[in-house]
Design brief:
- The chain folds into 3 domains: about 90 residues, NAD(P)-binding Rossmann-like Domain (Rossmann fold, 3-Layer(aba) Sandwich); about 200 residues, Mur-like, catalytic domain (UDP-N-acetylmuramoyl-L-alanine:D-glutamate ligase, 3-Layer(aba) Sandwich), CATH 3.40.1190; about 140 residues, Protein-Tyrosine Phosphatase, Chain A, CATH 3.90.190.20.
- Helices cover about 30% and strands about 25% of the residues.
- The strands form 3 sheets. A 10-stranded mixed sheet has the order 8-7-9-6-10-11-12-13-14-15, sandwiched between helices. It has a 6-stranded mixed sheet with strand order 16-17-21-18-19-20, sandwiched between helices. Strands 3-2-1-4-5 form a 5-stranded parallel sheet, sandwiched between helices.
- Helix 3 links the parallel strand 4 and strand 5.
- The protein is globular, with a radius of gyration of 22 Å.
- It catalyses: UDP-N-acetyl-alpha-D-muramate + L-alanine + ATP = UDP-N-acetyl-alpha-D-muramoyl-L-alanine + ADP + phosphate + H(+).
Length: about 450
């Protein structure tokens, strides 16, 4: 196996294929700060790309073999096909090649301590909560997020080599390439079934990830999640648990909600610690906050500092993000694209709705929509009206065996009101004609569905 190590005597120029991705751009920023020459290619324009240019990266907006000239290391993402012309040119010219996950895993080894946040749901929110706790501490951490957090002015904060914080995605078993000193597993659910065979395959992958930890390392588990709790018997590392319903090292009790915003009493090993008041909605964020508190306290942060950071956290972009008001209706946006996430998000919003709750959902990938269709069809119970738009293909091809119409029909079959509208402008017009004061509109999905809220709000100016 290619044993990558950041060594400027060997590598001086790193080229990132797909540099505009949220993780790739962060890695590129870190490498620029380390003094490497950085170039990259990406067909999409974004603020992230412009920032990289400002910071000194050379960016190409098309893929070409000439783009890799001078590079001695090529980094590529899962979204890049194996027949990519830059990747092919690198192979033919025998330039060292490494995938993004392996690069990230190797980078972890260059820090004294590292925290990796994994799980099917909640990775970005939990990592962002930890960021709010640790961003100003003396350790001067390096942080790599899967979203945009105002608290660090983006998706990356570059510090020194004492502490590294990152998300750890399980897609294509990438977690097996990571080497944290603290590994968090928030939950384990069916997803990415274009790669994984079934839930047993997913659980086994997380188990192998946990088994890679040493006796000095920490494994932080959500004890309320049945699949995650199945790892609680491992003996190779130090296991710490968090939860609500079951006995855990870090536990939330006496939970109250104020318009969807939770407060709870934090207990550590059955001893009351403090009352926690969250500025983000939903029970799922109680779990996220418990994971964040557990990870930071177990890494030497005081309960007081953890509480302060958790309570000032107001969310990351595209996670129940407030966008504005149209005709008295609140417009929000959320990244939820899995049935479990949809249920949690809509349940959180439902507690604060005075009028109707409109959900505009853009399914993400044909595979996920097809294989989880039944679960999706039962996920919108808390919405008064669900608008389904066309599937966002992402990395996949359309083989014609699944369509958004199938989902909207299944939702209606389950007794909920759903309509199918393929065009974003038509959805905006529908909302203009129907939403009223007291309503909440949430755009939902991992694609570009957020544009609908932007278009609606822009039309009122």
């Amino acid at each position: 196996m290619f044993n990558f190590n950041i060594d400027k005597n060997k590598y001086k120029h790193i080229h990132f294929i797909g540099i505009g991705g949220i993780s790739m751009s962060g890695l590129a920023e870190i490498m620029l700060k380390e003094g490497f020459i950085v170039s990259g290619s990406d067909s999409k324009k974004s603020k992230i790309i412009e920032k990289l240019k400002t910071d000194g990266a050379k960016i190409f907006n098309t893929h070409s073999p000439s783009n890799i000239e001078g590079a001695d290391l090529i980094v590529f993402t899962d979204a890049i096909s194996l027949d990519n012309i830059e990747l092919d040119a690198a192979i033919k010219s025998k330039v060292d090649i490494i995938d993004r996950a392996s690069f990230l895993g190797a980078l972890m080894k260059n820090y004294e301590s590292s925290i990796a946040v994994s799980g099917t749901h909640g990775k970005t929110s939990t990592t962002s909560m930890i960021s709010e706790i640790i961003k100003n501490i003396d350790l001067n951490p390096t942080i790599l997020l899967g979203g945009q957090l105002d608290g660090i002015n983006g998706n990356v904060k570059i510090g020194d080599k004492k502490l590294f914080l990152t998300e750890a995605c399980e897609y294509k078993a990438n977690v097996l390439k990571y080497y944290p000193t603290t590994a968090i597993i928030l939950n384990i659910d069916e997803d990415h079934l274009d790669y994984f065979d079934n839930i047993e395959h997913i659980i086994n992958t997380f188990k192998k990830y946990a088994e890679n930890l040493s006796e000095k390392d920490k494994l932080i588990l959500n004890i309320d999640d049945e699949n995650t709790n199945s790892l609680n018997s491992l003996k190779n590392c130090n296991i710490i648990t968090f939860g609500i319903n079951n006995q855990a090292n870090y536990r939330a009790k006496n939970i109250l909600y104020n318009n969807g915003y939770p407060s709870y009493d934090l207990y550590y090993n059955d001893e009351f610690v403090d009352n926690i008041n969250l500025a983000v909605m939903g029970t799922h964020n109680i779990y996220n906050s418990l994971a964040a508190i557990t990870a930071t306290v177990e890494n030497g942060i005081s309960f007081e500092e953890a509480k302060k950071g958790i309570e000032i956290y107001t969310g990351v972009h595209r996670r129940l993000e407030y966008k504005g008001v149209y005709n008295g209706a609140i417009i929000k946006d959320d990244y939820a694209h899995h049935p479990t996430e949809i249920k949690a998000t809509l349940n959180a919003i439902r507690k604060g709705v005075q009028g109707k709750l409109y959900c505009i959902f853009q399914p993400h990938t044909f595979t996920r929509t097809k294989l989880l269709l039944d679960s999706f069809s039962k996920s919108f119970n808390d919405a008064d009206i669900t608008i389904i738009t066309d599937i966002y293909a992402a990395r996949e091809k359309d083989y014609g065996d699944i369509h958004s119409r199938t989902l909207y029909e299944a939702i209606n079959t389950n007794g909920n009101k759903s309509i199918y509208i393929d065009n974003f402008e038509d959805i905006v017009n529908y909302l203009k004609e129907n939403i009223k004061e007291g309503d909440i509109v949430v755009t939902m999905g991992a694609g570009d569905v957020y544009r609908i809220g932007d278009m609606l709000l822009e039309s009122s100016k």
